[in-house]
Amino acid sequence: MRPIRRGESPQENYNSYLDARMDLRDRIGPYCVYCECYFAPSAGFPRVDHIHPQSRHPERINDWQNLLFACDSCNGAKKAFDPAQELPVFWPHLDNTWRVFFYRNGFVMPHPDLEEEEHAQASRTLAMVGLDRFDPSNPPKPGGNPAEILTARLDAWNLAARMKTKYDKADHPEQLANDILELAKKTGHWSYWMTLFQKCDPIRERLMSTAHFPGTRRECLEPGPLTQG
Fold this sequence. Notes:
Helix content is 34%, strand content 7%. By secondary structure, the protein is mainly alpha-helical. The protein has one domain. Strand 3 (101-104) and strand 4 form a beta hairpin. It is globular, with a radius of gyration of 17 Å.
């Protein structure tokens, strides 16, 4: 999960949370904050996710601090998850979610170096939005269309891996940097690209840039504490 900074509300209040969609897109980009899939302009605005569910916190329905973007799959799995009543999870706008998850072959898992309590918290985070359905060490779980979603995630990983191989073999890899960036922006799954290109400075710098991926908290991508508030 890309660690993001949403910032303060661009306006005093919203008559409807739907009115916040353009501001959210400008602040954090057209991506699901959980699985990082991309929302193409032709698909319209992403679904607005309420961190504290509407059903239990109607007073926060239009509260900017309660709004993020989520795809239908992650939003549907999350349902009425209420942070006020559940065990802690990691949030991309509050915690350093780059350092608590590990990506390999299109799958996302808690990072193996986490302490036991943090590992459990990372596992709860993946379960909250249904990303544990795609843990190769666990049996498949119901929800959404897991086969279709998994295929899309594997396709995204394989594309990033092919571009990494092409980059490594190129005589002038710097000439591929902008093409790779555009693919990353248009396919999403930022953490896949960041994982595969984290030792390639020209690509890494572009992926960390808020000019390309709005709201990215660059400080989370440098050595530092696990969580940052």
